Amino acid sequence: MQPVPGVFEGSANVVAVLVLLAEFGMLRQAVLRDQVRLYALQSLVVSALAAIVAAGRDVPELYALAGLSLALKVVIVPLVVTRLLRDTSEEIAGSGTLGVATSVLVSIVVAGFGFFAVGALGIHSRVLPTTALSLSIAVVLVAFVLMIVRRDVVSQAIGFFSLENGVSLASLVVAAGLPLILEVAFLFDLLVAVVVFGVLMRVHHGRTSSLSTSALTRLRG
């Protein structure tokens, strides 16, 4: 008989499912602003998990991480991307290399591979929510699919940012006791990525009057 999941394990599993569903929503969404909103929602539940882990495992430093994550990923990053979209006046994501239905099917296969691959490793621990870890790997892989199949710089940026959410989710369920400085380093990397993608969006739109990356194929030798 399987033991009843504890509060932390149950919360981690629910958050992981919500994060994965939000990732699939970004993949299906054609409106760029809705992609940004889904990313903010995804980041909100990851920040909530940090607070749950802080309370459940008595790691008060994670409250600071939850606050920083909430400020940066739920407020600042969506505001910056939305402001850039307002300046470009583009609302629809660039057409993907695959159709929406095909992209979703590919993502389901990739997510299933990531989920069962972690299960095949035979990782078992009384304090490790293995299901949440498997789902976090699935989130990372689906984020890669989003970055690959979409041909606009905003969707690719959102895919990269949400990939970081998958990594954050994995770090919270695997090693919640990491020093705060390491957790903050992940957020600093995200901040650098926001600056880089922000500059890329402005320069690319200024030169091509579009956010589509299709024109970049001309750079191939």
UniProtKB/TrEMBL annotation:
<feature type="transmembrane region" description="Helical">
    <location>
        <begin position="62"/>
        <end position="85"/>
    </location>
</feature>
<keyword id="KW-0812">Transmembrane</keyword>
<dbReference type="GO" id="GO:0005886">
    <property type="term" value="C:plasma membrane"/>
</dbReference>
<feature type="transmembrane region" description="Helical">
    <location>
        <begin position="38"/>
        <end position="56"/>
    </location>
</feature>
<feature type="transmembrane region" description="Helical">
    <location>
        <begin position="97"/>
        <end position="121"/>
    </location>
</feature>
<feature type="transmembrane region" description="Helical">
    <location>
        <begin position="127"/>
        <end position="149"/>
    </location>
</feature>
<feature type="transmembrane region" description="Helical">
    <location>
        <begin position="184"/>
        <end position="203"/>
    </location>
</feature>
<feature type="transmembrane region" description="Helical">
    <location>
        <begin position="6"/>
        <end position="26"/>
    </location>
</feature>
<protein>
    <recommendedName>
        <fullName>Hydrogenase</fullName>
    </recommendedName>
</protein>
<keyword id="KW-1133">Transmembrane helix</keyword>
<keyword id="KW-0472">Membrane</keyword>
<dbReference type="InterPro" id="IPR038730">
    <property type="entry name" value="HyfE-like"/>
</dbReference>
<keyword id="KW-1003">Cell membrane</keyword>
